[in-house]
Amino acid sequence: MIKQIWLNLPVKDIQKAKQFYSQIGFAFDEEHDTEFSTCMLAGTNNFEIMLFEESMFTDFIKNPIIDASKGSEVLLSVDVESWEEVDAMAYKVEEAGGVIFSEPTLSQAWMYGFGFVDIDGHRWSVLHMDYSKLS
User: For residues 9 and 49, is the Cβ–Cβ distance under 8 A?
Assistant: First the structure.
């Protein structure tokens, strides 16, 4: 079962991006900040928009960042309940005709997930995140 969905965006400098978005009215969940990422909140339900410095963003998508005026720069992500659900969804993606570009793996000691391209070419990640291991 999918628990949550959020949006990921690449930025050149996390501190400058955070300052800009703060100035125009966005809030942040600073509990989940890292040196290269921040969690921006949008809307009354606090929809999460993760801002990642470009080097970290490219680690997730396994693809170059495209000029936003010429292509997509978004990685759509979903959070699931467990490692087993990550693996099950990877199987389902392949069965449905999607292409896995990043096999299920543990990343940064607290995220287990995989990346896939859907039938229209959109990139997604499916993750199980253990925030208790976030350093």
Answer: yes
